[in-house]
Amino acid sequence: MPKHALVIYNPAAKSQVQTEIWIGKLVEKLNKHDEYLVSFYPTTAETGPEHLVPLFKPPLDLVIAAGGDGTVRFALAALAKAKSRIPCAIFPLGTGNVLARNLGIVKESILANPLEHAFDYLVNGRPVQIDMALMNGEYFAGMAGVGPISDAFMRPPRALKTKFRLLAYVSAMLQTIAQPPRVFRITTGGMSFKVQASGIFLANVEDLGMGKRNELSNLNDGFLELHIVDPVKFTDYVNLGFRFVAGSVDEKAPECILRCKEAVVEAMPRRGVRSEFQAWAKKLRNVLAGKKVPDPARVSEAPLMIDGEECGVTPMRVTIVPKAVTVLVPPQHSEVRVSEEVLHKSMPGLLESMDVTHQLNYDDYGLRDVG
After folding, report:
1. CB under 8 Å to 131, separation ≥6 — which residues?
2. Under a CB-based contact definition with an 8 Å cutoff, are residues 139 and 307 in contact?
3. Eight-class DSSP state of 76
4. With 0-12 CB in 10 A as exposed, 13-18 as middle and 19+ as buried, what is 236?
5. In contact, 56 and 5? CB cutoff 8 Å
């Protein structure tokens, strides 16, 4: 009796392979080893994850999310809403393919061809349960964020990402240096504190997955990593790039990390204070623009990002959903290994009361006290 596979994809999204080519090869590969009936679900701007929930029932055997991080999040969100254990294979057609990299589907190298092993993986993958998280009611498996650095992930238009791939984000990231940091209030684990930062991220993945071998244990340990990112000098931005892109564990990266199960992040109606390097970057930006570019307004709302896409505004309420979905991973990555690596920046023990801003040792973490 044939197996049933459902392919979810966004026909409006551009990829490095023409749609008719990858669809034909995908069907051919599936049926080379087993007999499959393959159905396709093209999404539109009006399609929501709830529209797919009725489809996740027998005789469906496999879901294939074909696309970038947005399409993958969409498919996994639908499976999580349905509380389905049908395995999902990720067919990486996007720019960053962050989750696919963290699952070992795409090689760690920034120059790796995402489809190099994708077709073989479809038929050889092994099922593993992973966590997801909910931000203001929206599921994600990768990363949610707020702040100027987070905004850079949302800035490049689709056409630039298709043409230049990861290089499309470079210009957007450089523009964030001229932006003033924001002041945030973070509440987690019964503690509340204020901090000045250029980015707050809640991540299920360890990093962007482009520089080192990642551990599946980060994706199903029942915890999120709360990153407070506050670069000040030029070298801070360089180290931050190596941390998230190259997977470096160098302690020079200007961030601190807190493992948590839930958190609330609020944007305060005040801007942070630029460092000398950020002030210089602002002057250079104005010269290149030929005019004085105004700073963002002092408002209590800031745009939120999920996996590179805009998703509402603050406050940001995030909670972990343990082992929410089942995904396929390459056979060599299917055994979950518990990492022995200790987080190089950890805040438990430093936070001892409900309002602990004044107790943080900001010099140790490269953060600036906002009082």
Report:
1. 141, 204, 219, 220, 221, 222, 320, 321, 322, 323, 324
2. no
3. H
4. buried
5. no
Rounded CA separation 179/67 (Å): 32
> Which pair of tokens denotes residue 202?
């809640």
Q: Which residues does 7 contact at the CB level (< 8 Å), separation at least 6?
A: 23, 26, 38, 39, 40, 41, 64, 66, 91
Q: What is the pLDDT of residue 260?
A: 96
Any idea which residue has 């972990």 for tokens? Answer: 320
Residue reference for tokens 């482009």: 210
Phi, psi torsion values for 362, nearest 5 degrees: -65, -30
Angstrom CA distances, 65 to 69, 113, 170, stand at 10, 18, 27
Residues sharing a CB contact under 8 Å with residue 48, sequence separation 6 or more, in sequence order:
none
Residue type at 126? R
Query: Which residues, given as ranges, of the chain have pLDDT below 70?
Result: 14-17, 109-111, 155-172, 207-215, 243-254, 333-371
Which pLDDT belongs to residue 355?
33
Cα–Cα distance measured from residue 88 to residue 65, given in angstroms and rounded to the nearest whole number? 7
Q: For tokens 């305060």, what's the residue?
A: 268
| Domains of the chain listed by start with CATH number | 3-124 (3.40.50.10330), 143-322+345-365 (2.60.200.40)
How far is 52 from 126, CA to CA, in rounded Å?
23
What dihedral do alpha carbons 336, 341, 347, 349 form, nearest 10°?
100
CA–CA gap between residue 165 and residue 150 (Å, rounded): 18
Distance CA 238, CA 163 (A): 25
User: What are the start-end ranges of the H helices in the chain?
Assistant: 19-33, 69-82, 98-102, 118-124, 148-154, 158-164, 168-176, 234-244, 276-289, 362-365
CA distances from 311 to 43, 104, 182, 200 (A): 18, 27, 19, 15
DSSP string, 3-39: EEEEEEE-TTS--SS-HHHHHHHHHHHHHHHS-EEEE
- Confirm if 61 and 88 have CB atoms less than 8 A apart: no
Q: How far apart are CA 140 and CA 128, in angstroms?
A: 17
Instruction: Note the residue count of the chain.
Output: 371
